[in-house]
Amino acid sequence: MTKKFLNPIFLFVVLFLTTSLQANKDEVHVKNNVFEVHYSQKLEQPIWLVYHSKNRPTTVNRGSMDFYTEPNIKTSDNLDYKNNQWDKGHLAPAASFSDNMENLKQTFSYLNCALQNQDLNRGEWRLLEEQERVWDDNENLVIKIDLIFDEKSQKLVTGATVPTFLVKHINFTKSNSWKCYKFENVKPLKKWAEHQVNCKH
């Protein structure tokens, strides 16, 4: 019986494509009933995330709910937020998705979590989220958050990388108008409204 050997060029192409596919697995795209996210497994942080804010009734409470990791996706985890200044910052806010337990729990995925300065997360960022829930009484909002990484971005010893800036783009769907806000990921020295920037749309 004559043995058949695979063409070396064919083997090279297969190896190249396999390696390329593995390299591209760094970034994953996930869409669920609460948010759509483009996530970097290398940075262990979202690149961007989109959610819809509308006048949902509050029917459930977060209680002692905490963030959870996702199967087969390398995200940040509890160790990245331990004994440091970084909060587990919701991108799609829990308070905006407290209409049912399924939605609320979905906001606690680490896919929806950013390493966020604790003073920013608990201060002006939170206040802007509260303002969103005022605005969405009148018209639905589509909100995209971009996380900006650059040479100043700190990589933690636990593996995750801290975004330097967070930029929030808010689309008012009825009037098709925009408001955009850029926050450096540090303790804020200005009110949330003073972080407004020109929108590039």
CATH class categorisation: Alpha Beta
CATH superfamily: Extracellular Endonuclease, subunit A
In whole angstroms, how far apart are the ends? 66 Å
Q: Report on the biggest sheet.
A: 7 strands, antiparallel
- Share of β-strand residues: 25-35%
The radius of gyration is 20 Å
Number of strands: 9
Order of helices and strands: HEEEEHEHHEEEE
User: So, CATH architecture?
Assistant: 3-Layer(aba) Sandwich
Q: Going across the major beta sheet, what is the strand order?
A: 1-2-3-6-7-8-9
Report the total helices: 4
Could you tell me the CATH topology label: Extracellular Endonuclease, Chain A
Shape: globular
Arithmetic mean pLDDT:
90
Describe what you observe in this structure.
- With 201 residues, the chain is α+β, with helices and mostly antiparallel strands.
- The chain has 4 helices and 9 strands, in the order H-E-E-E-E-H-E-H-H-E-E-E-E.
- It has helices at residues 8-24, 101-106, 118-122, 124-135, and strands spanning 27-31, 35-40, 45-53, 86-90, 113-117, 141-148, 165-172, 177-184, 196-197.
- A 7-stranded antiparallel beta sheet has the order 1-2-3-6-7-8-9. The protein has a two-stranded antiparallel ribbon with strand order 4-5.
- Strand 2 and strand 3 (45-53) form a beta hairpin.
- Mean pLDDT is 90; it is low at 1-23.
